[in-house]
Design brief:
Layout lengths: L3 E7 L17 H11 L6 H8 L3 E6 L10 H21 L4 E3 L8 H13 L6 E4 L13 H10 L3 E4 L22 H15 L2 H4 L5 E3 H4 L6 H10 L12 H8 E4 L6 H11 L4 E2 L9 H10 L4 H16 L2
Parallel strand pairs: 1-2, 2-3, 4-5, 5-6, 6-7, 7-8
């Protein structure tokens, strides 16, 4: 079956230094291998895609990417460089690669303009943002120009995990919980809920937010979100739709990246439906061999498998 994997990472020699802090979270040998593969497109990546039957990868700059840059002007410059480099790879292999733009949210108006350039001139299919930008989250009014432009262009924004702005007190002394095993998922799910309860989807109802890692756990929590929203004091927040789950189902799409287990996939199918789930491997930080084996053996119908493996990505990203 055709497969489009949509959370697949890369970097360039000029941008690789942004990822150095992440090395502490990984076994050194594994990180060294990952870095070599982040810089590679045709030596290892394409042959593995051929071996595993992955027809296309949607590439994105690996975390934390441009969000880590402190200098606003340099962030703008680096985002454009990353997008130009990505577009060059896509042009060279148009049937095998597409891409999400990097955005310098340090300059929201500039980021909106860069998103338009990336989509209309470079042929990219949306944007990927690596978490907060120096403690500022995408629900803030200053980022409305980015959401407005994404809605007008009809492209999604993929919210990818990164380290929290600071270390939570309850993680201190248990550093094993900091990073992809636990804190990244909680951080990213919280960021998504800030966007929801901050009214972004009411202001820009045509926008789509993509969450990896089987929705960062949110599909399993929809009943509780709705129940507590009705039961508790809503602190003056007013949403146009009756329940938080309405926004998750209408404005969010999830991917299977980094969660190669059938139980959470089946739960997500029950919670969201097959139209809201897309295949991803999180290459090279996760095993694409395992991801392919997982989706090919999932106990789901063939029509649902086709939606998850390629049809939803084709529809959402215009591939």
């Amino acid at each position: 079956m055709k497969k489009i994997a949509i959370e697949e990472h890369f970097t360039t020699a000029a941008l690789a230094h942004y990822s150095e802090p992440a090395a502490a979270l990984f076994d050194p040998a594994r990180w060294e291998t990952a870095m070599r593969r982040l810089l590679d497109f045709t030596g290892v990546r394409l042959p593995q895609m051929d071996e595993l039957g992955i027809d296309m990868e949607v590439l994105s700059l690996t975390a934390p990417g441009i969000q880590a840059e402190l200098d606003r002007a340099l962030a703008v410059k680096r985002a454009a460089q990353a997008n130009d480099a990505l577009a060059e790879i896509v042009r060279a292999h148009p049937t095998r690669f597409s891409g999400f733009a990097a955005l310098a949210l340090q300059d929201p108006d500039g980021a909106a303009a860069e998103l338009e350039r990336a989509v209309t001139q470079l042929g990219l299919c949306g944007a990927l943002v690596n978490g907060h930008t120096h403690g500022e989250y995408l629900d803030a009014a200053k980022f409305h120009p980015v959401w407005e432009r994404a809605e007008a262009l009809g492209v999604p924004i993929y919210l990818h995990p990164a380290n929290s702005y600071d270390v939570w007190h309850n993680l201190r002394g248990h550093e094993e919980l900091i990073g992809p095993m636990w804190s990244w998922g909680v951080e990213t799910a919280t960021h998504a809920l800030r966007i929801l309860f901050g009214g972004v989807f009411d202001r820009f109802p045509g926008t789509t937010l993509v969450l990896g890692h089987m929705g960062e756990g949110l599909p399993a929590l929809l009943w509780r979100l709705d129940s507590r929203w009705e039961f508790l004091d809503q602190r003056g927040i007013r949403l146009a739709k009756p329940r938080p789950s309405d926004y998750v189902r209408d404005n969010m799409v999830i991917t299977t990246s980094g969660v190669c287990a059938h139980a959470p996939l089946l739960g997500s199918l029950l919670a969201l439906g097959a139209d809201r789930i897309m295949f991803a491997t999180d290459y090279p930080l996760e095993s694409n061999h395992e991801a392919v084996r997982f989706i090919e053996t999932a106990p789901i119908s063939e029509p649902d498998r086709a939606k998850i493996c390629h049809r939803n990505a084709e529809r959402l990203l215009g591939l």
